[in-house]
Every structure is written in C-alpha cells, then in structure tokens.
User: Fold these one by one.
Assistant:
Number 1:
Amino acid sequence: MAVYGLALIATAMGTHFALLKYVGGAYLIWLGLSMWRAEAKTANPQHTADSTWTSSFLSGLLITLGDQKAIFFYLGFFPAFLDLSAITPLDTLIIIAIAAVSVGGAKLFYAALADRASRLFDNRPAIRAINICAAWVIIAVGVTLLLKTLLEA
C-alpha cells in the first residue's frame, strides 16, 4: 500500500514530490534527535501476564500492522532508494517479500533474545549508548534523503 500510495502521490505531485521527500527526511532527523534526547529507563516489570503463543503472535502482528511510525518510515525511506514511477507488480511482490523476511525475521530474532538481553542491558549507561547509536543511524538516513533530494533538484 505504501509503494502504490507513494507512486500515486509522486505522479500527482510531479516536481513538487521533492517537498514530500524533505518532510520524510526531516521526520527521520526529528525521530533520531528525539531518540537521542530520550531518558534511559530500565525495565523492571513487577508482573508479567501469562500468554499463549497465538495471542502473542496476533498481538505482535496487529501492533506491527498498525504502527504509524513504520508507515512514515517507509514514506521517508522508499523515495530515497526506489523510482516510484517505474514500479511493476513483480517489484511490489519483491518489496513485500523483502520486508516480510527482514522485518519479520528481525522481530523473531529480537523476541528470542529479549530475555537474555534484558539482563545484560538492564542499566542506564548501556541503554543510553544503544539509544545514541540508533539515533545516529536514523539521523544519517534522514540526512541522506535530504542530500539526495537536494542533489536531484
């Protein structure tokens, strides 16, 4: 949906589509700065509810599908790396497969390691370092998008 929506917007906006790229880049930079400034908090849950595999899977799936930040991320990410006016149905299937494997695989990997990692990173300095590293990556993608858009103009 994001690919076809962006292709439609790119066609309708013509040369003004660069404005949307600037907004996407600025959003990524803002997201990175917010992460950088965020307070490092340790997670010490007092009570964890018992859940079944099915309920955990459905909760994760629905949260992922309803994540507006992911939609805005793709809004900022796709125009930087894809020519949206030339996407074919096969390209769409390839993008969906890559996203499903990469996002789904990463989430499964993170879920499997979450318990062990929570013991290792249950201190504020470690959490702060992780936030700063992630913030730099997000800011770098936003800057790349803005620079690429400027160079295309």
Number 2:
Amino acid sequence: MRLRTCILIGVAVLAAGCATGIIEPVNPTERSASSTRSSSLVTSSLVPSEVRGTNGNIDLPRRTRLDVPFSSQAPDADWTDPRKQEGCEEMSVIMVHHFLKGTGLPDPLGDLIDLSTWESENGYSLDVNVEELAAIVEDYYGHKTAVSDEVTFENIAAQIAAGNPVIVPAAGRKLGNPYFSGEGPWYHMLVITGYDNRYFYTNDPGTRRGDDYKYEHDVVLNAVHDWTGVKEEIETGRKVMLTILP
C-alpha cells in the first residue's frame, strides 16, 4: 500500500551501505561563517529515532557521509537520448535503490532504460514531480517512501545521520554547477548523501563528475523546487524532499 505522508519515518538502513566519517556531535543549528540563512531547529516529528539520545535530545554528528553508488544519467556518455537527458529522477532512484540493497550499480544503463520504459508504459511523462516519483518507486521497486515539505538543513541531516539518503528536486540553474552543459537544466533531481558544517555532499547524476559533488547548504536549499509542469516556472515549485525506505 502506498505511504502518503508528510512525516518522514526514520528507520535504520540495514543494507551494506552505511554512514562513514562520523565525528563528534554538533549543535544542530551550527552554521558555517559564510552562511547567512537564519537558523531553524530540527522539526521533532521528522527526526529519526536513530539520532535521538536516550533523553530525547537530538544528537547530530558533525559530519556524515553515506556510501551511495554513483552513475550519471547517461552512463554511456550519450546525451542524445531523451530518456537520458531527462533521466535524473530515474537515476537518483536507481542509486538509492542499490544503496538500500547493497548491490552497487551492476548495470546502470540497463536499469535506466528498463525503468524509463516501465514509466512510459504506465502513463508517466519524461519529467515527474516528487509525489509521482514516490508512486513509481513504490510500484516498481516495492519500497515504501516518505515525502516531506519541511526541507531544512537539520531535517536533511537527521535523515542522513540515520542512514537515509535524501532525494531533492531542484531548479537546476540555481545550483550553479560548472560541469552542467550550457546554463544547466531547468528541472533537476539529485541525491544528498552527506553533509558537514558547510556542504551537502551529493550524487548528482547531471554530470559524470557528480560523484560526491559538494554544494553549500544554502545553494541546495535555495534551489529545491518541485516540478510544476512548466520548466520556466520551476522556481515556483514547492519545497519538498523524498526518502526511500527499505
């Protein structure tokens, strides 16, 4: 049954992928000196039990990185196929699926084509929003999903600290990635795999150099916008994030 909730349910990831590089806990509102975003407390209902202390306090590590396997959305470097040009949603899901299964990426191109074909056969467009992507994940892979519109550094960090990669949609041109072609995609999707006190670490399928690519916190948070159906209106899309559960 589909899980349609705006509360992220924390569960430990039991697959081979696990958090690495955890250092001492940090106050969840700590920011880098370059950040001007006002601090916000972790929304308590979104904090997985794995990052709560015995007294109920939130205990986020200073750094956490998840070993999520990476592929660009054009594994064969052929960007002429529309399924690859618009394949950031699919490849983001594929990376997280294989992380949860602990199986690496044995055939990323085949996975992408198979998933894209299934979507087409089931009435999905090349671009999908997060709610549609959650439905695809549940129907195709059988995972449960959780969608939340409380997109903050703290809530993303809490999920990652619990072992859950976070998928976010974005107005791609606001990311400012120099490895994107031209100005970059209007609409994009990527996987947040880690964080420290300045950067989010991501698997960004929009470039072959997207493995463990770093974006500053505010760059990601300002760029997060869901698909609206009109590419030029992407910056009006809602702030939302997706977690895939085993």
Number 3:
Amino acid sequence: MTKLGYLRVSTKDQRPGRQIEGLAALCDELHVEHASAATRQRPVDQAVIGRLEPGDTLVVASLDRAFRSTVDAINEAERLIDRGVHFEIVTLNVDTSTADGMLAYSIVAAVATHERMRISERTKQGLEAARRRGVRLGRPPKLGPADLAQIAARLEEEGATITAIAAEHGMAPWSLSRALKRSQSQRPDG
C-alpha cells in the first residue's frame, strides 16, 4: 500500500515547495514534474501512474496540479478506480472511492477547468488590448535600425553574405533577411 505523491509546476522557474510541504507527510515518495498543464506528454506523470498497483494511492496537492482538463481528470480517476488504485486530492479532502467523493471530484474538476479557461481568456484579452495600444509583443529585436542599415550597406559590398553576417550576430539567415525587409519597408523612402 504505497502512497505516491505527484507534484507539477509549469516552468523550471517555479518552485514546488508549497506542494511538497502539503504532501511530504502523507506520501511514501514524491515525484515532481516541470511541465505545463496543457502538455500532453508528461513523463513523470506517466511513470507514477504506471507504478501504481491495486491498493496504492495517488496523492496530489490540488486538482489543477495533476490534470489538463475535466475530461482528462475524470477519465484518469475512472482508470485508477478500475485498477483498484485510490486517489486523494489533499486541498479538497476528496476520496474517489465513494459515490459522493466521485461527485465532489467531478464538480471540482469542472470548476478547475473553467478557471483555466477564464485565465486563458483574460490573457488573450490582455494581449489584444496591448496590441491595440501599439505594444510590441514577443522578444525585442536583436538588431536595431542602425545595425540593419550597416548590414544592408555591407551586403552591397562584394563578398558579404546574409549567412555570414547572420552567423556573426548569432541568428538564422532567414531572421536577418526578414529583419532587413521589415527595415526597408519602414523607411520613408523605402
């Protein structure tokens, strides 16, 4: 009767400390995964699920730390139950081995999915508002207007190539070509 704790954080920069504190005393082992909730391939999750035997328990701190969606959560809970594996959600004190626990689990899974969708909607709305205000999204350009003007002049010289100049600046030739075209189209004479 082993209790395996599964913890997930979305990025390498995030720390699982809060989840570890909540699960350490409850579990025989803790397994941490660094992956987005939307990622389909989560090797740590797959390894933990694969190790569970009848009578074992999968323990997660909260629902959104374990599953991608309501459907994913409900399907996984049913597969675990069919295998004789128990499932605990620490923050909710949910036990999926009872009908009431499964009902509570289904409701919580739906709410968690709803919240993820709302966060996604708000993020998209924020990005769109920033675009309307003229904010440039994404990485800042590697080369400024003066750099691009100098590179354009070098390309007119014999022997200079996009590939060689791109390598000097640590970028792909197609990126440099695109930056040059954008720069030329933005010039008043261009």
Number 4:
Amino acid sequence: MPVKGKERWEDWFDAGEKLLWQGAPKSGIIHWLRNIFFSLFGLPFLTVGLFTAASGVGHLASMTVGDLAFGVFLAAFSVPFIGAGGAMVFGPWIADHYVPRRTKYALTNKAGYVATRYWTRSMDVFPIRAETRIELTEHRSGASTVNFHFEETRDSDGDQTTVKKGFSDIEDGATVYRLIRDIQAEKGAGPQ
C-alpha cells in the first residue's frame, strides 16, 4: 500500500498510466443507521451468551461432578453467542473507525486501485473500459460510493448475487464518477 516515503502509487502502474485521483474512505462514523440496526440485532445474542456464560461459571463453582460438567458445557455453549453478538454489536462501529486508516484508493487513466492493509497487504486493480458499468451512490452522511466492478455469482439454488467493488464512502464521489466517465469517453463509450 502506498505510504509516504516508502512506496508510491506509480510503483504499481503499467507503462503510460498516470494518476488522476487518490483518496480514502471518509473517516468517522458514517453508517449510523446500519450500525444501530446491527447493534440492536446483535444485542440479544450477546445478552444470551453472557447470561449462559454466567450460569456456566455459577455451576463451575459447585463441587459436584454433574454441576462441573454442566458448567463447562454452558460456558462452551455461550462462546459462539458471545462472539456473534459482540461482532454485531461492536463490529460495525470498529470497522467505521479502522477501514479509513487501512484502505487507500487511486484512479488512473486505465484502472481503479484499491489498496488495503490489515493482517496482510492487498492491491485490487479493476480496469476501466468503455463498457465498464459504473454506479454512484450518495449517502446521507455526505460520503459517496462509486462502484465500477460487479461480480455476478449463482449459488446452488440458482439465486444470483452481485458483489459490487469500487471506492466506498469517499467525499468527492461525483468528481470521481465524472473522471471515470471521461476515461470511458476517451475509450469510445456511448452514453450510459
């Protein structure tokens, strides 16, 4: 991932590629409604998990073999509920805090780059072609998402799922959308 003084975007570009825009997701909590929904949905799981764990610890305090075994069972049974509930309650808020620090975007005259750095580094490159479908979504928070890569998959039941990729939660989405449309115009795209 490009970092000041160490790596530049240009280190990843092909010959003739030039940087048109670079950015990152907007920092701060921008998905309030989504985060509140997930927190409320996960709260019962977390509550049941904690209650079950507390009951298990209470049984562990007993000295009978039956109570010890039941206490271990309850404590083990509570782990998935605590994990899932905790992830739903706290995960979206933590993600809104860390994703902008760990994700960088770049747009060139040929492709869109998405660089992430969590446990490992990754660089996704999505070519911009004349026929590339683009989608601009403006959020109430003032941020925008520009998607320009769509993966269509079918599950075993034949249901189709679309995974969208691009620049999420950026401040200048309309500008980036316009830049991509200009790239397409140079490559001979018709109106979308």
